[in-house]
Amino acid sequence: MSESPAGQEDSGLSQGPNPATLLPFHDPAFTVPSHNDVRAVTQRYSLTGSALARVTGVTPRTVRKWLAPPEVENHAPMPYAAWRLLLIEAGIVKPLGIPHSNSEEQTRT
């Protein structure tokens, strides 16, 4: 059985995810990604549910929950960490990096 890209059935999402979902979590304008945002990324990069599961470290069943509309009983929102990892792996955003204080920098050098 061949697998089609996750979320392929809704072709009106090809413009990409909501730009507010691409912001860091701590940004006041950040918006939690909807199932449509997840679908938009998977469609743009032709990711299957299995490929998305491998990238984010979850099972394909979990991916199906992320892609399900919110009114469906088995829907689950995609956690921020998985969303950010997907965006980084896809090259949509750059890693934020881990901030270091000056004293930590001095002890490492």
Description:
There is one protein chain. This protein is mainly alpha-helical and 109 residues long. It has a single domain, classed as 434 Repressor (Amino-terminal Domain). 40% of the residues lie in helices and 0% in strands. It has 5 helices and no strands. Helix 2 crosses helix 3.
What keywords describe this structure?
globular, 5 helices, 109 residues, mainly alpha, 434 Repressor (Amino-terminal Domain)
* Class computed from helices, strands and strand pairing: mainly alpha
Largest sheet: none
Report the CATH topology name.
434 Repressor (Amino-terminal Domain)
CATH class: Mainly Alpha
**Tally of extended strands?**
0
Summarize the model shown.
The protein has 109 residues and is an all-alpha fold. It has helices at residues 35-44, 49-56, 60-67, 80-90, 102-108. α2 (49-56) crosses α3.
Topology, element by element:
Blueprint: H1 35-44, H2 49-56, H3 60-67, H4 80-90, H5 102-108
Helix pairs in contact: 2-3
